[in-house]
Amino acid sequence: MGAGTGGHGHRGGYSAAFNLGRGRSLISTGSMSLHSSSSSSNENNPSSIIDSLSSIFQNNDVSSNELNDDCLLALSRCPHPVADIALKAYVKQKIRRETNGMDKISDPSKYIIAVLRNTMAASTTPLPPTMRLNSTKKNGQEHGIFEEDSDLVHMKPLSPKKRILASKYVTGKTQTTQVPANHNSGGQQSRGTHDVHERKGVLTANSEQVTMDYVDKCLSCITKLERPIIQLSGVGPKTEAAFHSLGIFTLRDVLWHFPRYFIDRSHIRKSVQNVVDGDVGTFLLFVGEPKYNTVTCTDEAGNEVDVTYFYGRSRQGMVAASAAIRKLCNGDSDSMIVSGKITNTEAGRWMLFNPDVVISPDKADSLGIEAVYSLASGLSQQKVSTAVKEALVVACELLKLLPESLPDDLLAKLHWPKLADAFALSHKPTSMEGTGLNSPVRQRIAFEELSLQQTRLGLSRWNLKHFGVTHDLQLKNPHSSWKDSPLVIAAVSALPFNLTSYQEKCLDELWNDAIVGNDGKMLRLLQGDVGSGKTVLAYLLGLGCVEAFQGGRQIVALMCPTQLLASQHVQTISEYACRLQRASGWNIRVELLTGNVVGKSRENVLARLEATNDKSIFFLVGTHALATPDIVSRLMQLSSGLALAVVDEEQRFGVRQRLALTKCAAHSLFMSATPIPRSISLKRSALVDFTVLESDSRSVATTIVSSDMIESVLSVLGSKIQEGSKCFWVVPRIVRSGANDEGDGDSVTRPNIIERYSMLKKKFGEERICHVHGKMAEHEREEQIARFSDPSSEAAVLVGTTVIEVGIDIPDTNILIVEDADRFGLSQLHQLRGRIGRAGSRPDLKCNCILLSNVTAAKQNPASLTRLQILQKTNKGEEIADADFYLRGPGDMLGELQSGIKKGRVVDLENHWDLLDAATQFGRSFISSPTENLRGAPAKEDASDTIVSWIAERNATKFHVNANAASKQGFSLRIMMALFAERKNFEVDCIEVINTLQNMAASKGEQTHNDKTIHAKIVEAFSNDRNDVQSLNPIMLDDLGTQRGSEVPVRPLKPNLAALNTQLSVEKRLNLIDEDVMFVVLDCETTGLDDKTCHIIQLAAKILGSDDENDLFSEYILPPIDRIPPQIEEMTGITDEFLRNGGFDLTLGKERGTARDFRQVYLDLQIFCKERANGRSIVFIAHNAKFDVRMINGELRRWRFSDGRSPMLGETFTCYIDTLQLFRNGKWWRAKHRREPALPRPSSFSLSELHSHVFSESITNSHNAAGDVKALERLLLSRPFIGWKTTANEIQVPFVRVDI
């Protein structure tokens, strides 16, 4: 049924027709009050309504007198479970407010109606006729009995899980999913949710339909696998806690707990000399006489073997040893089969110490291959094996019910077992050949997991392209080519240069995707070398998008990683726009929005955005500020929204930052010369489309030179300068680093700006040398760059940090020298090299890149030397990005890990990469969008090629060709999603995927009533009674103020946690010495010492050991008080005026804008940490850390009280280390076991006193959080505290994580 008919608007179902009230009269005009109505209709009779709701009122302890007539009528018209949800929410909120001393709910009726409205919005089921009896017409359109009122506060929408549950109740366990309108350029009305027909006969002939009995059997198996581990026989609270420490919470988790290794006890060796010393072997031994706790035996080759038992000197240990010796010696025969670890002692004798197995020879057949599992304290191999057996019984029962995804002939060709057999053999193999990661058993499971991952990626692509901001857009004036667009042709003509043939070809491709194509939202990665002209293509495409929408969307956003690059883009686009405005009637504006544009200036920019009119185009250029929550929120609300979002140098942004901006736009374009490995993964998996911009840039000769040859380099550079050359000289640091990165205490002087600038001035003269770095004031930096770029200037060398990586365009520069080049990434080095040989450079000067490196150290780290050799071999960004992809790993395509290897349940991409091509084609077989073949590493086996050939031979008749819920293939796909889903990502891995499957089927009009019913059953099974929330380890319960032995905390320690629907879990302790963790030094400045009444005014963090200026986070916070106390201003130097109006920050040496709200700063801190962690655990280091934790928790608590939910420290940090406690350890102040006299113990352990005591100098910028974190970092990395990680390992305090 079309929009506007039958009481349904575009939103459809309850969400439009059942607009639950916002305070106006909910009964049609002319109706009487509910309590005074004389209508004979029983449904509006007050007594009958109250009677029908009496049980719900009684269960929730709510009186009908608390609610008005409209609310009672609304509750009576809802299904009882939904009414019960609304009343429970009201009671919970009421109790929370009373408990925390907050204001009472002013209007309970409005609150309940708002909850009902949000709950009903979860469903798209058409409104039953009985619900439309009192509908009225207003302005010619039909409305439901409930209307909206603007004075009702906006309610936070339900979480996805609650919406699923609510939808189940509303629709009577039958759910119809909402479908986006198809994006078409013809202006025809798109098919929406209510135009979906239940078609019969659309299923292919090979699509067998499932029965309800079959569905129930499969879902029953899934339910059994989701049983908590404590429900298994022999598992109590302590054993449960041990399983939890291994990440095992349910029977399904046990299934994926594969053995660490296997022991083959079935092979009986004739001689102990045939076994490597320290390995496990099985032997037939002739038993001798026992002596004490040892029995001297002889193997079949005549070698003497001492079998020794020792279980401790206690009585129990001695009894156990005696029993074991009797078992060995008192057998029916003079020989026994013994299996255990064989060792050769210093005396040259062979010994079996506490052997694992001792049996008589007639039981030799019972020996086999034994699995060895990872254990935790309180677990034994027997307990884990018992749990695995139970899990395998249920899993094999389920897998035998489901159809095999690969046919028997293909499995036979690959020598792969069926999936059920593969799981059984992975835990109990029949031979040692089947135990490796590349064994047929593991390959079979890995292929299934990879294909399901690719299915998720394909569905994610479909969801991104067909759901979101573009579903309500119509292109009003789409031109078939950019050459037909008057605006774009005028823009091209106005450019100060001609487009190359490569650029024209790329523009054709971009235009076809964004303007001509009808496949939804554009998601495209544009890869082109530095200086190839990517920016002008983004500019022209932005013009075309705005023109096509004709007033619908008039803004193009361009996000850059640095202010320098953003300013350059503003200048470039402004120049283009100025030329175009003179040649066309369009009004084109270019605005800059960075972190320095704050207060009224920022509001003015946003106001101008909102004031755009027809024939206007707005280019909004900015830095990370465009991705902050407040700006994203404003952009989402704009009536003239984003036509195109462009992310330049996308490798410099985090996953969340890119998504934050692109979700606001109709189309998205990512640009980079060397995309991050994750982006390459997305390209190769066809989640984003891909365009390569080729160029004819000059070749740069790259040479690797040892650092000790710097004098020779300087000599050559001097002669080149005399010939007219200019040089960029890049060093990794601004100031000297006191110790090397390994922390061994040796005083190693690394290259730095200050010393190198001084040396070059002495060598070539001050007039020849310029320098720039991130800590310089902006005007100073611009002055230095201007002097270097001035052709009339004598300046020939610009010394700088990686601040010159992007945004510097000085064509005359033809030499690049990078010191410590092995410490840079491939992408960074290629970007730096792109600063030379640019368009307009002198053709008579050869371009040279010299990579200075400590070659000896680089050889010890093959990866760093490989990076330099790759740069030496090629100048092409695409080849360098691919090499970076293989060196660093593909990252997590469905998560936030930007590089590295993201392993699955069984997938190990280092071993299973060759299967990815076939898995991609197989997993995407039912999705219409084309996939691009992977160019993976050379295949180790023919498995991938065999499967691909099979797919081609069967003419794409693949397993999941029909993904409807009622087909056996589609139902099996949903069940497999649940079986393979990771626990922590179950919502994304499973529930969201099956909802997308349903949406996709509905968009094609291929849903039947059976599909909807089965889909609702699956959602119900996957949403109810899940055990995702971890309970507390019983050992820790006393520490958190709970009763020992209780599974769930009786009362949380902190009262602010009582309002949360949460459970607590304590993070495990880290091994700070061996594990790869990231240390963050953190400090905050506050208005006082009380976390209840005082506030944080500055938050600073620094990545420990990093010299990159971008690894320092420092933000000021405007507290919600009238004025900063004078004593705090005096002590910290942070004045009230500075926070409110901004000013020059002496600590960082730059201008700062108005201080921001704590929430914005804390979210930025989370992003700062997680982006740099790359999946590692993050450890929070602070001096007197308990105070910092307490103050931050105080701010988070206030946030939680106002919004109902806030982040938790445990979501970002795994544990914290208090350096106050660390430095008080007496071992630092003792001379024993040290090569040099120890420092005397200080009289005070305050940070300033400690710093003065160790370094004999005061802290620079003391009592400023940024100054303090640098001082603390310097202390930790100094010689007196070598080995501090060992002490930190003992005093670390894990954070309590709250799982909501």
From TrEMBL:
Compositionally biased spans, kind Polar residues: 177-191
Keyword tags: ATP-binding, DNA damage, DNA repair, DNA-binding, Helicase, Hydrolase, Nucleotide-binding
Domain Helicase C-terminal: 709-888
Keyword Transferase part of the UniProt annotation: no
Record field: transmembrane: none
Lineage top rank: taxon: Eukaryota
Transferase in keyword set: no
InterPro entries referenced in this protein's UniProt entry, alphabetically: DEAD/DEAH_box_helicase_dom, Helicase_ATP-bd, Helicase_C-like, NA-bd_OB-fold, P-loop_NTPase, RecG/Mfd, Ribonucl_H, RNaseH-like_sf
GO molecular function: ATP binding; DNA binding; helicase activity; hydrolase activity
CDD domains: DEDDh (cd06127)
UniProt-listed Gene3D superfamilies: P-loop containing nucleotide triphosphate hydrolases, Ribonuclease H-like superfamily/Ribonuclease H
Protein name per Swiss-Prot or TrEMBL: ATP-dependent DNA helicase RecG
Organism annotation: Cyclostephanos tholiformis
Source lineage: Eukaryota, Sar, Stramenopiles, Ochrophyta, Bacillariophyta
